[in-house]
Structure formats: C-alpha cells, structure tokens
C-alpha cells in the first residue's frame, strides 16, 4: 500500500461549518435520509441518535485518516494497549464536547423540536468490562488521543458485555445485555481485516534447508478474527486513536458433508461453536477457575492483535524485525493478554525464522506489563494440561523461556532451590502456568498503579524478581480523564470553574490549583454548593425512579459505588449504618445528621458472600427506610445496574466518597479520584491512591481512619482475633447480633448467619472488626464538619483544586516517558 501523502488527490479538509446552523441542519437531514433511511418528519429519538452518530462518525473517520497519514509519513513509534476490557461510556456527547460543537448541535436540533439530552439517552452504554481496569483503559485512550500519543487499543467485541443487574426481593439478578441488538453506529466493520487464529493440533520439529531446527504447528482448528474499529478522538486538537475490537467468525459457513446428508443443524453447529469465542465477557474480577473458553478468548484476541501489529509494522519496515522494539511498544493491561509474549516468540521463531536469542531480545524489549491487583486469587494461572491441548507450541516456548530463565537465576542465586521454585513460570505442585511470572520475565518494565501498590508488588508479590531485575519495577499512579469525569458529567461545575479560572484545566488539570484562592470566597462557595445541591437533586430523581427510595432533601449523600467485594468492605459500611440506626432509635430526639446512604455495584454471579452483602444492604434499607423513627434522618438506597452512565450521575451528586478497603488490598481505586474531582470529601483507609490523594489535598481535607497496610500485616502476624473486638465493643456486638439473628429478615432468621460467622468464626480476613470503631468515630467527624457548611465547602473546593495529579493525562505522560519512550505528535490540521 502506498502511504505517500497525496493531499491534492484526496484532500481531507473540507469540513462542515458547525457554526452555521443552516449547514448543520442540512447535514442532519441529509444523513438521516441518505444514511439512516428515515424521514426526518417522523423520526424517533433513537433515529435522531443514529443520525447524529453517523454524522459525527464521518468527522472522526476524517480525523483518523489525518492521523494515520501523519504516523506513516513520520514513521513514529506506536503504542499498542492490549486489554480484555474497555468501558468507554456513551459516545455521542463525548464527541460533541471534544469537538466543542455541543451548543451548535443543540441549537440545530431545537429547530427540529428535538432535545439533545433525550437523544443522548438513547445510546446503549457499552459495558465491555468489569470495573476499574476497563474504565482505566478507556480513560487512557482519551488521554492518548488528547495528548497526541500515537496509540492503538486492542480488545474483544463481546456480543454480550457485562450483565445488567436488577434487584428482585433484595437480591441481584443477572440479565443478558445485548448491547448490539439495535446496531452500533460508532463501529466500522473491516471485512477485509481478518486473521485466522489457531487452536489445538500438534507440533512437529524438523530441520530446515539450512539445517536449523524448526517447528511447525499443524492440524489446528481455526477461527477467524474480524476487526471492528471505534475511533477515539481527543479533546480539541487531539489525534485519533483506533480501538480495534475482534469478533470471532467461523472459518467455514457450513460443513458441506453434513449439509449434503440433509442434516442442516449439525452443518451449522461447528460455525456457532467457533463464534462463541467473542460471545460474552466473563463477569468476574477475581477468580476464574480455569475456564477453557476464557483462555481461548485471551489467545484469540492476542493472536489477532499481534498479526495486525506485525502487518502494520512490515508495511513500513519490510524485513527488519530487529527494529521492532524501537518502533512499537505493547502494554499488557494485567496478565490477561500475557500470551502475547510466547505468541510473539512463536511468530519470530517459526514464521520469521529468527534465532532464539534474537527473538527473545526483541520480545522482552517490546512488552511492558501493568499489574492491577494484589489479591492472590486474582493472579492468573492456567492448567498445563489445558494449555498443552489448546496451545501446544506456546507451551513448548514457555518451557524453554522458563528453562533459560531458571538457568540464569541459578547462576545469580546458587543453591537456593526455594527461590527457584517461587520464580518459576510453572507451579510444579499444582501443574499450572503462572501468567504473572511470564509477564514479568517477558517485559522490559512492570508497573503497579499507585505508590503503595507498586511498593507492595515489589515487597510481597515479586520480591525475588525485584532483586533479580533491579530496574524493572516502576510505579505509574492511575488517573482519570477530566473530560468525562468533570466536563461531561458535571457541566454546571465545569462552567463555574471555567468562569473562575478559564478552560485550560480541560487539557492541563494542574491548572485547577488556581481555584485554591477561591476556597473561602463567599460568592464562589455559594455557587459551588448550589451546584452540588442541583446535582444531588438530579441524583435523587434517578434514585427515586430506579429503586423507589426517596432521598432526604438536604441530607448528606454518602456514596459507596464499585464492584461488590469483601475487600472493598461494603459490609463495614452497612454495619455502620445499622449502628447509626440503633443510635437513632435509642435516642429519637438526638440530632444525628440526616444521611442518605447510597450503594451501587455488581457482584460476580457466583460470589456467595458478595451476593449476601447486596441482599443485606437491601434488607437493611427496607427496615430503616420504613421505620417512622428514622425515615426522616436515615435512608439507604441500593441503585441497580451500576455502570458508567449511572456513575456520571451518582458522582457529581455525592457529598461523601466511601473508599474503605482494608489497607493493602485495593491496588489504586479510580472512583476515589472522580469523587474528589467533583467536590466530594473522602472517607477512606490508607490504601491505594487514597494515600496520594491525602498527600495532595492535605490531611485536614480528608477523613482517614483504620489500620495501615503495615499494621494490617503486623496484626495478622501476631494472630488477629475478631472476638476481641466483639467482646470489647458493645455497640459492635449489638450490630453483629442483630444481623446474625435475623433482625433484618424475620421471615428467614438465618439468612445472614454466614456473613457474621465469616467475621467471627471465619477469622474476618478483611479486618472489618478491627477498623469498626475507628470508622464510626470518623463518621462522627464527618457529621460534625457537615454541620459547618462553610468549612465543608472550603474543604470540598480545595479537594477539586488539588486533583491535578490525578488526571490520566499525567499517567499517560509518565508511561510515555518512563516506559514507552514515545513522543507526542503535533495534531494534524482539521476542522474546529
Ligand atoms: C481474571 C479475572 C480478572 C479480571 C479483572 C482478574 C482481575 C481483574 C482486574 C485486575 C480487576 C480490576 O479492575 N482491578 C482494578 O484496577 C483498577 C485500575 O488499575 C484499580 O484502580 C483497582 O484498584 C483495581 O481493583
């Protein structure tokens, strides 16, 4: 293909003038008639949405071509972000804001009596991820595009993303989420970009013409990966970053043998089996007990992505694979794509005939790996037998990588058999491949996602590797994009900030510092608090509609939203709510500060304890919300189906952000950053990025409680006994007894016995009891401060002003400098 820039033949700069309302109207009508095929006179809001999406997509595509021409022209180093998950959120408003044409579009639509917000609501929120890791990937694509880093995302186009959640009888019920049912106007299918992905078969070894040993992987069963592209363009003068998602297709449409025998169903069966590969996202964020389909998904997307990366590389660098580490870098978003390491070795060895040493040098220098979790059960391992059957050649390569690696280790640590065992890529006892060890050995850099997490990674998870590879482990603290989490999700606050300090913060979040001087300005504070109040009203309306709970007007909105997991301690929060309930009932005339306590989040479908916690929250809500003594001072709401769109309403409308994981368990957290950016104060432990948030905002502007990570470890080493706390604290005891004995579920008194037994007899793995008292006291401090609205406003404003560090733009700059060694492109010319 010729990538010379031939602007005179194919000029890319004839754009729509969005400032001309008549032109915009004409473009809308034309798109609706010619592309969507609908008469504007009778178009539904959904058809308007599709029309706008197609119109915008044309502009994104143009931006994409500019970017591609520029990248090829300058032969820039590219970043490939490999992630099994993306949570990009709805697209339409994002692109209007990025192009700064939202008011113009609103005005044009008004001429047709259409409301832009209603139109935006038509869009399905693509839920191709579980939680933090997937949303981080989306924030990173936005930052790469905005900051001009030549990036590409690769992932899977799941037909069914994260399940949608309803609450029935207080319990989570999962429903299939067919987000593609009505089509996806943002994607472009690339029928011509397809690759075979191979599974199974066997490996034969032979000597080639030159007498060198070669391997051939034969008799495989193949699946086709087909590319779907979604364009991510950044804010203002950003570049385009392509998110390429792979969909699985069968290699043959029908098995003609069956067909000729008249067995139609069997003839298509094989086809549907191979298409199940990209059918569904695994809704688990920790343990995956060796599901074969998941391993196949991982390899499917890795193999297709690497073939695509190689194809693009070879277009511009034919025959010079040694240049690979100079021209590309591949970032592994956790170990889920770690098979890319043996896959690249396989390509270099078997297809491109490089020597082992050359291939290994290239591979190691091309990959970098981000770890996102310290929980041992979330560290991926795969049964050797399964890998052997599905990927026999990769298994050979992994064995050889391991053999050579352990040889080196033996030289460095002679006679230390235990160390060797721990560092091995193979767990001999359990007969499993350790993906994290593979990722560490095969990458040039390994990073954690917050200071504490990166330190604990080195000290607790990979201590031997840290000694063995002195400069491999680094930290890149997570960040969030202020474009979505302030500009888009909180327009009134964004506008107030722009009025006060200008709009430079949109692409340089450190500029928010200029707000510090306004923290005590009476008129600024007043408007700031009015905006919070409006956001709470909007939040309350959503909550009322979605779960029938009436938030208490003027109360403190206390918000705990994230995946439901024992380590995140939603249970600690609800125990605290029960204690508060008891205090109110014991003393109805007490003037405890009114609170609306909001929870949202999904549990993995098979996670027994997490599902019990959801049910307990709902059962507590049922009693508390209807008790005449408490209903005006305490409300509990569990908002169903937490996703990006819901977060966009819940976060701006929160006063208090609950970040209360057991210290040493939450890698970073990113919700914590979004809340503070929207002027909520944090109540949290010294865990993950909370520590750095405290450093930035100042300890007087955050509510920290509980044991530190070091104290947690020390307490465990001493022998932690939850009964000590139960026996010593009557209020805690009362709460636990009530929950255990069925106070909140008279019809089934034993319902929550397992939860309480898990704390008392079960050893309380996440130390809720140890932190309970300190949490209660800190919540009292929250109440006290909230009564002083002026002081609260000051602290909230200072939180916003000091969030500069937590922009994903800063994270991306750090990756670019310390890990990727890539430079920013100057944005190509384009309209607007
Ligand atoms: C094997 C299945 C599986 C799937 C996802 C295991 C583990 C995961 C992720 C590691 C879960 C995740 O989303 N981790 C979160 O990543 C965020 C972004 O770095 C962090 O802010 C969170 O603290 C971390 O829990």
Automatic annotation (TrEMBL):
<comment type="function">
    <text>Phosphorylase is an important allosteric enzyme in carbohydrate metabolism. Enzymes from different sources differ in their regulatory mechanisms and in their natural substrates. However, all known phosphorylases share catalytic and structural properties.</text>
</comment>
<keyword id="KW-0663">Pyridoxal phosphate</keyword>
<keyword id="KW-0328">Glycosyltransferase</keyword>
<dbReference type="InterPro" id="IPR000811">
    <property type="entry name" value="Glyco_trans_35"/>
</dbReference>
<dbReference type="InterPro" id="IPR035090">
    <property type="entry name" value="Pyridoxal_P_attach_site"/>
</dbReference>
<dbReference type="GO" id="GO:0008184">
    <property type="term" value="F:glycogen phosphorylase activity"/>
</dbReference>
<comment type="function">
    <text>Allosteric enzyme that catalyzes the rate-limiting step in glycogen catabolism, the phosphorolytic cleavage of glycogen to produce glucose-1-phosphate, and plays a central role in maintaining cellular and organismal glucose homeostasis.</text>
</comment>
<protein>
    <recommendedName>
        <fullName>Alpha-1,4 glucan phosphorylase</fullName>
        <ecNumber>2.4.1.1</ecNumber>
    </recommendedName>
</protein>
<dbReference type="InterPro" id="IPR011833">
    <property type="entry name" value="Glycg_phsphrylas"/>
</dbReference>
<dbReference type="Pfam" id="PF00343">
    <property type="entry name" value="Phosphorylase"/>
</dbReference>
<dbReference type="GO" id="GO:0005737">
    <property type="term" value="C:cytoplasm"/>
</dbReference>
<keyword id="KW-0119">Carbohydrate metabolism</keyword>
<keyword id="KW-0808">Transferase</keyword>
<feature type="modified residue" description="N6-(pyridoxal phosphate)lysine">
    <location>
        <position position="674"/>
    </location>
</feature>
<dbReference type="GO" id="GO:0030170">
    <property type="term" value="F:pyridoxal phosphate binding"/>
</dbReference>
<dbReference type="GO" id="GO:0005980">
    <property type="term" value="P:glycogen catabolic process"/>
</dbReference>
<comment type="similarity">
    <text>Belongs to the glycogen phosphorylase family.</text>
</comment>
<keyword id="KW-0321">Glycogen metabolism</keyword>
<keyword id="KW-0597">Phosphoprotein</keyword>
């Amino acid at each position: 293909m010729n990538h010379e820039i031939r602007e005179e033949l194919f000029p890319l700069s004839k754009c729509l003038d969005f400032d001309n309302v008549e032109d915009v109207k004409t473009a809308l009508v034309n798109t609706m008639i010619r592309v969507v095929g609908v008469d504007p006179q009778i178009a539904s809001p959904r058809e308007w949405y599709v029309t706008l999406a197609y119109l915008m997509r044309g502009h994104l595509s143009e931006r994409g071509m500019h970017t591609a021409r520029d990248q090829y022209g300058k032969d820039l180093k590219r970043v490939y972000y490999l992630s099994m998950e993306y949570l990009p959120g709805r697209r339409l408003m994002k692109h209007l804001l990025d192009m700064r044409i939202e008011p113009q579009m609103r005005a044009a639509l008004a001429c047709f009596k259409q409301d832009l917000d209603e139109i935006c609501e038509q869009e399905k929120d693509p839920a191709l991820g579980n939680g933090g890791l997937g949303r981080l990937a989306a924030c990173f694509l936005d930052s790469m595009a905005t900051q001009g880093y030549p990036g590409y995302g690769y992932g899977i186009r799941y037909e069914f993303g994260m399940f949608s959640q309803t609450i029935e009888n207080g319990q989570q019920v999962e429903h299939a989420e067919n987000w593609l049912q009505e089509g996806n106007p943002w994607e472009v299918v690339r029928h011509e970009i397809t690759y075979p992905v191979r599974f199974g078969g066997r490996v034969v070894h032979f000597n080639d013409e030159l007498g060198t040993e070669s391997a051939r992987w034969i008799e495989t069963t193949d699946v086709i990966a087909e590319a779907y592209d979604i364009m991510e363009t950044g804010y203002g003068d950003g570049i385009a970053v392509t998110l390429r998602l792979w969909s699985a297709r069968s290699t043959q449409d029908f098995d003609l043998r069956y067909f000729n025998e008249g067995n139609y169903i069997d003839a298509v069966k094989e086809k549907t089996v191979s298409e199940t590969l990209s059918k569904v996202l695994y809704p688990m964020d920790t343990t995956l007990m060796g599901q074969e389909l998941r391993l196949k998904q991982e390899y499917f997307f890795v193999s297709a992505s690497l073939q695509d990366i190689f194809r693009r590389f070879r277009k511009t660098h034919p025959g010079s694979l040694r240049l690979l580490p100079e021209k590309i870098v591949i970032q592994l978003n956790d170990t889920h794509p770690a098979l890319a390491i043996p896959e690249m070795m396989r390509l270099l060895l078997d297809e491109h005939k490089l020597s082992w040493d050359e291939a290994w040098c290239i591979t190691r220098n091309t990959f970098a790996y981000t770890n996102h979790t310290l929980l041992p059960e979330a560290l991926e391992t795969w049964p050797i037998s399964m890998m052997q059957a599905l990927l026999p050649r990769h298994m050979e390569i992994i064995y050889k990588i391991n053999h050579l690696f352990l040889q080196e280790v033996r030289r460095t640590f002679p006679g230390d058999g235990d160390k060797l065992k721990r560092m091995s890529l193979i767990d001999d006892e359990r007969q499993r491949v350790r993906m994290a060890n593979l990722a560490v050995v095969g990458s040039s850099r390994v990073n954690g996602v917050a200071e504490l997490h990166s330190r604990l990674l080195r000290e607790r998870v990979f201590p031997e590797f840290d000694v063995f590879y002195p400069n491999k482990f680094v930290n890149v603290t997570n960040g969030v994009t202020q474009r979505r989490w302030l500009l888009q999700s909180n327009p009134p606050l964004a506008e107030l900030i722009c009025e006060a300090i200008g709009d430079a913060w949109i692409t340089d979040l450190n500029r928010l510092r200029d707000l510090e001087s306004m923290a005590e300005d009476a008129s600024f504070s007043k408007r700031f608090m009015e905006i919070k109040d409006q956001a709470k009203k909007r939040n309350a309306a959503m909550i009322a509609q979605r779960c029938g709970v009436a938030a208490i007007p003027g109360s403190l909105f206390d918000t705990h939203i994230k995946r439901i997991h024992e380590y995140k301690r939603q249970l600690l929060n609800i125990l605290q709510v029960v204690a508060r309930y008891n205090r109110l009932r014991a003393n109805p005339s007490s003037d405890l500060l009114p609170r609306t306590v909001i929870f949202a989040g999904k549990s993995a479908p098979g996670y027994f304890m997490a599902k019990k916690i959801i049910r307990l929250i709902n059962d507590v809500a049922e009693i508390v919300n209807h008790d005449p003594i408490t209903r005006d001072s305490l409300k509990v709401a569990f908002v169903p189906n937490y996703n990006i769109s819901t977060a966009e309403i819940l976060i701006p409308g929160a006063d208090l952000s609950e970040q209360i994981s057991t210290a040493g368990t939450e890698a970073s957290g990113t919700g914590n950053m979004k809340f503070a950016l929207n002027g909520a104060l944090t109540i949290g432990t010294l865990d993950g990025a909370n520590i750095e948030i405290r450093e930035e905002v100042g300890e007087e502007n955050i509510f920290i409680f509980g044991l530190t990570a070091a104290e947690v470890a020390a307490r465990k080493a001493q022998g932690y006994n939850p009964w000590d706390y139960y026996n010593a604290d009557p209020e805690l005891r009362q709460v636990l007894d009530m929950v255990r004995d069925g106070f909140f579920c008279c019809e089934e008194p034993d319902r929550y016995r397992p939860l309480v037994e898990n704390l008392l007899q079960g050893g309380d793995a996440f130390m809720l009891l140890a932190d309970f008292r300190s949490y209660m006291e800190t919540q009292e401090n929250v109440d006290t401060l909230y009564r002083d609205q002026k002081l609260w406003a000051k602290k909230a404003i200072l939180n916003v002003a000091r969030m500069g560090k937590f922009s994903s733009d800063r994270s991306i700059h750090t990756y670019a400098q310390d890990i990727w060694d890539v430079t920013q492109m100057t944005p190509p010319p384009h309209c607007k």
